[in-house]
Amino acid sequence: MKTAVVGSINMDMTVTAERIPLKGETLKGDELHYIPGGKGANQAVAMAKLGAEVEMFGCVGDDEAGQKLVKNLQEAGVSTGHIRIVKGVPTGIALITVGENDNTIIVVAGANNCVDKEYVDSIKEELFQCDIVLLQHEIPQETVEYVVDICTERGIKVVLNPAPARPVKQEILEKVTYLTPNEHEAAILFGNDCSTEELLKKYPEKLVITQGSKGVAACRKTGEILLVPARKADVVDTTGAGDTLNGAFTVEVAKGRDIESALKLANTAASLSTEKFGAQGGMPTLEEVIKEMKAYK
């Protein structure tokens, strides 16, 4: 089983504070950290920590941050042989404020904008060797659509995590194998005319909606709504929790697990990831997740 992530690679500049500042307000920060991130890279690291064979496809700048990020992926067990180093373009940056067990994030795309159709054409033969591909929205939309098109034509499963939220063409939504928005992102994709339950029933065992502290929901092919409740966590930092869930879910469905089993493991992994600081630093191993699932049960 070989998995792939096509997406963003960022350096996170994370400041911790007592709380997140209000509009126009200045607060004293506690600490500033430079931490490897990017939704794509986070998801790849989560998958590698869970034991998957995963390759990261994306772009970084020819700067110190880019070098550190590629090395970090390699040390996590992610294949990086086809990451493109773009001259004269800075590596992507995410500015993150952490406070009150929550966060705000501003992303400056940088080299992530160079993950274009030409780049995908240059790596598509390697991409076609994979069993499943995970995508997000921190690279150009036309690239996301192109990867969905060429992978589905080859019968390769595609998981689309539509974050950050932006509209997606209906034909792309129909083509992906799994779609994993949160409630806000689902409203951007589908509007507010349908309830969560109605949406889930429209896309059984395809649409997975994360609901924060309530857990994660999907619909079985029988029409029964499946709600996997959130595990109680001693939250330190929620950054990367959604990426952990998506990475874990992708690994599990690639193994052929049923949707309930995949979501239970992914939900537990995401919860564990919030108990340590940093998006990737708190991501658990498969052994840690299984141990916690047994204890929690």
From TrEMBL:
Keyword field contains Cell inner membrane: no
Gene Ontology annotations of biological process type: D-ribose catabolic process
Signal peptide range: none
Entry cofactors: Mg(2+)
Binding site for ATP: 182, 210-215, 242-243, 267
Pathway: Carbohydrate metabolism; D-ribose degradation; D-ribose 5-phosphate from beta-D-ribopyranose: step 2/2
Function: Catalyzes the phosphorylation of ribose at O-5 in a reaction requiring ATP and magnesium. The resulting D-ribose-5-phosphate can then be used either for sythesis of nucleotides, histidine, and tryptophan, or as a component of the pentose phosphate pathway.
Quaternary structure and partners: Homodimer.
NCBIfam families cross-referenced by the UniProt entry: D_ribokin_bact
Record protein name field: Ribokinase
Species in which this protein is naturally found: Lactonifactor longoviformis DSM 17459
Gene (UniProt): rbsK
